[in-house]
Amino acid sequence: MELVLTFSSTRGSIQAERLLLDGGVDARAMPLPSSIRAGCGIALRIAPEAFSAAERLLAPAVPVEGVYARAVVDGVAIYTPYERWTP
Amino acid sequence: MITLDMRGRPCPIPVVEARKALAEHSGEGIAVLVDNTVAVQNLRRLAEGLGCRFDHLAESDAMHTVRVWPGDGVPFAFTTMPRVAPQGPSRGATVLIASDEMGRGGEELGRILIKGFLFSLTELAVLPDRVIFLNAGVKLACEGSTSLPDLLSLEEQGVIIRACGTCLNYYGLTNKLAVGEVTDMLWIAEALTSAGRVVSV
To answer: With a threshold of 0.90, does the pTM exceed it?
Structure first.
């Protein structure tokens, strides 16, 4: 399972990626899955263990729009809202 | 067995010359002296592609002797330059990643877009046959790249991943390639010209 962080703008995603990587969180970019929201955008994948560190790094700088848990079942990725995150 | 001294010759000259020499000396095989391990790997792939036997003796970091000779039970009779498609002809897509950015415009945008593209490759219903990294694109396949898990997943699923040895050397990344194998321009040229289609990014 991975966590997927979404942002309200592409520039926000880029800024968040840099903050996370510089802060030692392995953030991996992916196109925003269409099952989360129609349209374009970049989301970031992180390990669940890195979630609180990611929140700490991003909170002062980039608002997180959504957090989803990504699980692959029978080859299909399923995204569900992450219950341990509140906007 | 004739010996070619290819020390000091840039990639892909050792492979090109070795192939010519093999065409002229079919039957007995050849020995090739090279001064780097990338050349050794390229010669190994040449041998594999031709169905030849291969061995390698490293006398020092800068002195390697490679021998290539006819394989057991494999015909070794060609008189012209053989046309050997890497790993056989490919009917599917070959993806060429020639930069660590996707498209032109914002550099930071291009760098995040290409990571998203590599991840998206892993989610395709039909995977490409090969992904080839060139120029600054090789950085994506090296230690420290956040795309490595995606590329390793592609490789596990049978996608052939290759990075240009000249390019790795240029960026000082020769020992940092973390997925796939090093290759030379001859292999890349064959892969691109024998592919079902080429997707260039």
So the answer is: no
The pLDDT tens digits for A72-81 are 888 788 899 9
Say yes or no: ipTM exceeds 0.85. Answer: no
DSSP-derived secondary structure letter, B135? G
Residue in A26, A31, A77 closest to B116 by CB: A31
**DSSP letter at A23?**
T
Residue B81 has pLDDT above 50, yes or no: no
AA identity, residue A46: I
CA dist B131 and B54 (Å) reads 26
Per-residue pLDDT reduced to its tens digit, A55-65? 999 998 999 99
Q: Which helix (H) or strand (E) holds B56?
A: strand B52-60
- Listed in sequence order, the residues at least 6 apart from B147 whose beta carbon sits closer than 8 Å to its beta carbon are A28, B114, B115, B118, B119, B140, B141
Q: What residue of B is the nearest CA neighbor of A44?
A: B116
List chain A residues with CB under 8 Å of B112: 13-14, 17, 29, 42
| Cβ B12 vs Cβ B42: under 8 Å | yes
Q: A9, A14, A34, A78: which to substitute to probe chain B, counting the most B Cβ within 10 Å?
A: A14
